[in-house]
Fold:
Amino acid sequence: MKIGFIGLGRMGNPMVVNLLAAGSKMVIHDLAREEASNLELQGAEWVDTVKEVGEQCDVVITCLPGQQQVDALVLGENGLFNNLSEGAIYIDMSTTSAAAIQHIGQEGARRGVRVMEAPLEGGLANAREASLIIHAGGDDELVGEMEATLQPLGEVRNEGALGNGNNSLAA
Structure:
């Protein structure tokens, strides 16, 4: 399975390091190419566009600053959902809101993309040490399927339906 990861900043970069160390085959993208140099040295494949990530990957993870960036990247004209194949999996690790991820889930369902949220509890040290708490929300089968993929990042907690991950983090 090829995993795409978009958002290689403060949290995303060490998370990709841990996924690579666990043996994941990674395709990466960020607005700032310099964020990726250490990851390329460790075996990640850089691509220049979101379109390429979508075309090459079965699973795509985003870790972005906020909802505005997620919406633009995922739902925009040249966005991820227009380039993922039917049955692909999208995991958003950004902290947004239950309503926002539910809307993305509805859009994904219309396009045949399976959507899961996985907002993070913990900071940079936790990302480096693979000790994040991942508040997974979405279809139980999907969360179960993705648990082993996400475990190299920390503890995966199944919070239930899409939206519950962000709700549990906000509580």
